[in-house]
């Protein structure tokens, strides 16, 4: 399956990074541009479990498209959150649930993430898919 265009662009950016250090710098750049997350939304229903850091994700449906917000207390993880939000925002719930997490392999990030961060990435992605799926019911 081909990736949605925003996600495809991000994957290509990471592919162009020639080292793990540059990929980390790219993640930190994404973390910096993530909009502030409301403290009031840092509640158990929005928490991503299975992550070592504190991660929160919210989803809203506007005109049939999902828009996410998120935050993490760890900068690299915050970068992963921002990467996913930028890649998935504006898609329909159906488009989101059809995406498989294989694209992380194509970025080269998986090799440079610790196993716990890679697991956290999958947990964040799964929560976003679950939130999107809830709009189909």
* CATH architectural name: Alpha-Beta Complex
Q: Summarize the biggest pleated sheet.
A: 2 strands, antiparallel
Strand order of the largest sheet: 1-2
Helix content range: 40-55%
Radius of gyration from CA coordinates:
14 Å
Total helical elements: 7
What structural class do you assign from the helix and strand content?
mainly alpha
Please mark out the parts with pLDDT under 50 across 5 or more consecutive residues, or reply none: none
Q: State the total count of DSSP E strands.
A: 2
Work out the strand percent: 5-15%
Number of domains: 1
What is the CA–CA distance across the termini?
24 Å
The helix-strand sequence is: HHEEHHHHH
- Please name the CATH topology: Sufe protein. Chain: A
Shape: globular
Overall residue-averaged pLDDT value: 93
CATH class: Alpha Beta
Descriptive notes:
The chain is mostly helical. It has a single domain, classed as Sufe protein. Chain: A, CATH 3.90.1010.10. Helices cover 55% and strands 12% of the residues. It contains 7 helices and 2 strands. Strands 1-2 form a two-stranded antiparallel ribbon. A hairpin with a 2-residue loop joins strand 1 and strand 2. Helix 1 crosses helix 3, helix 2 crosses helix 3 and helix 3 runs parallel beside helix 7. It is globular. The two termini are 24 Å apart. The mean pLDDT is 93.
Give a brief description.
The protein has 137 residues and is mostly helical. The protein has helices at 5-16, 20-33, 75-88, 93-98, 103-107, 109-112, 115-134, and strands spanning 55-62, 65-72.
